[in-house]
């Protein structure tokens, strides 16, 4: 006999404050010397997770009992010190485990492996009271971690986690409650195509270009590198990075202020296709998207990620797939639709128009469901 699964309990209904918004801020951690420590902590997290998984499964199988987060917390209490993680983190794992088990409707979840080819990416959850954030530093369990402060930490930190990406880099994610800015948008919606040559192209024809001064600085950088002037090169590199960041901040703020709903392409696989392995470019696209999401919400708007497959090959006028496709089509900037004879003088604007339409359609579908 299988016990009845617990329903996900609604959090005690607090009156929702319309003037605040919860947003997740994500920062990359700076000093790699501390990463071993995080790796070690992540192993302890996996240990607790796997314990929850095993114990919970046994309880269902042998006693038809679904252990709640509170049950799991009781079972794991006192283990934190031995594992070298904070007791709040152990509690956070138990809560997350119980939530996920209900969310995925499973009696058992995936094992978190600490090594081997199926190693889980590191993850260390925490509660607001177990960290201190100050300037570009965050303290957890008495250890200070420096962050690449892409934007200031603001608002009230509610909870968070350290997490690792596939390249082994560590990040800290903070769920923060920030004040929404009262704002009136000029335009209801926009679709955005993120690209390599230009930073972004909007469905209304606006083109946001990497400014030419980057090019000048990049030439300087090349010169310094060829002359093996390492210190100078490093300096120029940092300058480019700062300028680009300022530029992206300004542009994304403009977009978030002007348009209420922003639909942005998910840009998956685009770069592999074009054979451009420049990771710096990939990173700046991710940055634009993160900034857009955050700023849209901040300005009382929305930002949606849209599957942009076929957005470049579809005619935005008649919706037939008549555009240039494949590798040979990459160089084609303008084209005429063979079905409806619409002329697209910028294929990225056409793509952005499609992204806008895809976004509208998926929103409508989501509302209907
Ligand atoms: Zn057409």
What would you say this structure looks like, in words?
This protein is 40% helix and 20% strand. The protein folds into two domains: 20-179, no CATH class; 187-368, Nucleotidyltransferase, domain 5. It has helices spanning 35-63, 69-76, 80-83, 87-103, 212-226, 230-258, 270-274, 279-298, 347-368; strands at 20-28, 123-127, 131-134, 137-140, 143-146, 156-164, 170-179, 187-194, 200-202, 207-208, 259-265, 302-306, 335-336, 343-344. Bound molecules: zinc ion. Zinc ion is lined by residues 315, 317-318, 320, 322, 337, 339-340, 342.
Summarize the structure.
With 369 residues, the chain is of the alpha+beta class.
Q: Which consecutive residue ranges, at least 5 long each, have pLDDT under 50?
A: 9-13, 269-280
Strand order of the largest sheet: 10-9-8-11-12
| Bound small molecules, deduplicated | zinc ion
Order of helices and strands: EHHHHEEEEEEEEEHHEHHEEEH
| Overall pLDDT metric | 84
* Count of alpha/pi helices: 9
What is the class of the largest domain in the CATH system? Alpha Beta
Distance between the termini: 33 Å
Count of separate structural domains: 2
Major β-sheet profile: 5 strands, mixed
- Give the CATH architecture of the largest domain: 2-Layer Sandwich
Q: Which features characterize this protein?
A:
369 residues, Nucleotidyltransferase, domain 5, 5-stranded mixed beta sheet, 4-stranded antiparallel beta sheet, binds zinc ion
Secondary-structure topology with pairs:
Blueprint: E1 20-28, H1 35-63, H2 69-76, H3 80-83, H4 87-103, E2 123-127, E3 131-134, E4 137-140, E5 143-146, E6 156-164, E7 170-179, E8 187-194, E9 200-202, E10 207-208, H5 212-226, H6 230-258, E11 259-265, H7 270-274, H8 279-298, E12 302-306, E13 335-336, E14 343-344, H9 347-368
Parallel strand pairs: 8-11, 11-12
Antiparallel strand pairs: 1-7, 2-6, 3-4, 4-5, 6-7, 8-9, 9-10, 13-14
Helix pairs in contact: 1-4, 2-4, 5-6, 6-8
């Amino acid at each position: 006999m299988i016990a009845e699964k617990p329903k996900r309990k609604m959090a005690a209904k607090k009156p929702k404050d319309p003037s605040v918004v919860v947003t997740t801020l994500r920062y990359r951690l700076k000093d790699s010397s501390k990463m071993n420590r995080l790796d070690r902590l992540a192993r302890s997290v996996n240990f607790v997770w796997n314990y929850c998984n095993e114990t919970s499964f046994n309880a269902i199988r042998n006693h038809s009992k679904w252990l709640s987060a509170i049950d799991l917390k009781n079972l794991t209490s006192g283990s934190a010190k031995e594992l070298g993680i904070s007791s709040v983190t152990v509690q956070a794992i138990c809560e997350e485990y119980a939530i996920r088990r209900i969310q995925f409707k499973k009696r058992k979840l995936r094992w978190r492996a600490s090594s081997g080819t199926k190693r889980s990416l590191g993850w260390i959850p925490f509660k607001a009271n177990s960290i201190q954030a100050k300037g570009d530093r965050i303290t957890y369990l008495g250890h200070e971690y420096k962050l690449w402060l892409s934007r200031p930490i603001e608002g009230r930190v509610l909870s968070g986690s350290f997490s690792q990406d596939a390249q082994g880099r560590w990040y800290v994610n903070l769920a923060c409650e920030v004040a929404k800015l009262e704002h009136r948008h000029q335009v209801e919606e926009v679709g955005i195509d993120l690209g390599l040559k230009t930073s972004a192209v909007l469905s209304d024809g606006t083109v946001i270009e990497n400014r030419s001064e980057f090019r000048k600085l990049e030439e300087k950088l090349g010169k310094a590198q060829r002359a093996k002037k390492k210190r100078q090169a490093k300096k120029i590199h940092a300058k480019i990075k700062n300028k680009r960041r300022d530029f992206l901040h300004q542009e994304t703020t403009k977009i978030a202020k002007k348009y209420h709903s922003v639909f942005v392409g998910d840009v998956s696989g685009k770069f592999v296709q074009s054979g451009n392995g420049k990771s710096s470019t990939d990173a700046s696209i991710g940055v634009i998207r993160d900034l857009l999401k955050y700023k849209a919400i901040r300005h009382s708007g929305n930002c949606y990620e849209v599957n942009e497959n076929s957005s470049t090959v579809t005619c935005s006028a008649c919706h037939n797939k008549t555009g240039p496709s494949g590798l040979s089509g990459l160089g084609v900037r303008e084209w005429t639709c063979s079905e409806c004879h619409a002329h697209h003088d910028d294929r990225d604007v056409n793509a952005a128009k499609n992204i806008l339409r895809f976004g509208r359609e998926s929103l409508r579908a989501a509302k209907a469901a």
